[in-house]
Specification:
- With 139 residues, the chain is mostly helical.
- It contains 5 helices and no strands.
- Helix 3 packs antiparallel against helix 4.
- About 11% of the residues have low confidence.
Length: 139
């Protein structure tokens, strides 16, 4: 009687059941459920279901950087800072030159005569009658 009870307990424990009532790994799950499958969609569904039942273990965290890698990173950051400052100086100089050249192209209102637009034909409200879009009308 006592041996029967111990034997029954061994059969019902988790380690004794592994593989007896179903797959115990992802590969076993896929192989067991692929029997008779002929479509790719069904095979992918089976693989997804087995992966959900047996997920991948989490990947280990990356090792911390060495002192050499940290020093290289700091040097790169310093070089990038210097390059950025150099480009900022070039950009500012270029913008200043562009602004000066633009200022030299601006018309001087005192040096150019203004046409007399007040004595032209009456304006009808159409765009072609707008004085901005037609030649100056000098009587």
């Amino acid at each position: 009687m006592r041996c029967g009870l111990v034997g029954l307990m061994v059969l019902l424990t988790g380690s004794a059941q592994a593989g007896w009532f179903g797959p115990s790994t992802y590969e076993e799950c896929v192989l067991e459920n692929m029997k008779g499958v002929s479509s790719n969609a069904a095979a992918l569904a089976i693989a997804d279901a087995c992966r959900a039942k047996f997920p991948l273990p989490p990947s280990p965290p990356p090792p911390p950087p060495s002192e050499e890698e940290k020093a290289k990173f700091r040097a790169d950051m310093e070089r990038n800072k210097e390059e950025r400052e150099q480009w900022d100086r070039i950009r500012k100089k270029s913008l200043d030159e562009l602004e000066r050249s633009y200022d030299s192209l601006k018309p001087n209102p005192q040096s150019q005569p203004q046409p007399n637009l007040g004595k032209c034909a009456p304006v009808s409200g159409n765009w072609w009658d707008d004085p901005r879009y037609r030649a100056p009308c000098i009587p």
